[in-house]
Design goal:
223 residues, 8-stranded antiparallel β-sheet, globular, 1 helix, mainly beta
Length: 223
């Protein structure tokens, strides 16, 4: 088992506003939907603004657990923060539209998203096509400017892929498991371990008209 401290350089005292790769870390990249820069304040915080704007963290992950502390600055009721793991979203190949074509080189990954009142999950079979939509409630409403901790686990179990999503409201009661689902019919490219151990990444994305601040990001790569 290997644990990566993804946000280690975010506390180096160097404030930076950037597009593309973090000038202090060539494994963290802001991309997608506009040209709004990402802000890292040098004190451990990264703020992402813009609908569907995201950071890609270039760490290979297959069976893994991602932990993120989230401070939401949501504006609309549909604003959310989404995590995506086991992703090869930006690799060369075809883009899916209307359900086809499906390109095994461009699996978007397994997702877990939270808004103020609930969670949802999607499987992105190929870049731009989603299926296996699931959703549910959360124990308490999230509040703007108040930190919560998210934990997303993706792991093969037999021929299935087990996905767990958890929220810790940082009130002393620990993590609440809100999502516990299985992909019982993964396509062959979704469980091609060699492919994702050769190259994969995860993302943390802002969705909607608000913004998110994240900190204390870690990735535990499981055997």
């Amino acid at each position: 088992m290997v644990v990566f401290n993804i946000s280690e350089t975010w506390s180096n005292g160097n404030k930076r506003i950037f597009r593309g790769f973090d000038p202090d870390d060539d494994k963290v990249e802001v991309r997608a939907n506009g040209n709004i820069p990402c802000l890292i304040d040098g004190n451990g915080n990264c703020t992402i603004t813009g609908d569907r704007r995201r950071i890609y963290c270039h760490y290979n992950n297959y069976n893994a657990i991602l932990t993120v502390t989230l401070i939401p600055h949501f504006v609309g009721t549909n604003d959310n923060c989404s995590l995506k793991m086991r992703s090869r979203h930006n690799e060369p190949g075809m883009t899916c539209k209307g359900g086809s074509p499906l390109d095994g080189n461009r699996f978007g990954g397994y997702g877990f998203a939270v808004n103020e009142n609930g969670w949802n999950s999607k499987r992105e079979s190929t870049h731009n096509c989603h299926d296996e939509h699931r959703s549910g409630s959360v124990p308490m409403k999230m509040q703007n400017e108040k930190a919560v901790k998210l934990r997303h686990s993706v792991k093969d179990e037999g021929g299935n892929v087990h996905q767990i999503g958890e929220i810790d409201y940082m009130d002393g009661n620990g993590f609440h498991k809100v999502m516990d689902i299985y992909d019982n019919s993964p396509e062959p490219w979704m469980v091609d371990r060699d492919l994702y151990e050769a190259k994969s990444y995860f993302w943390i994305r802002n969705n909607g008209s608000g913004s998110i601040t994240i900190r204390d990001v870690s990735l535990k790569v499981l055997p």
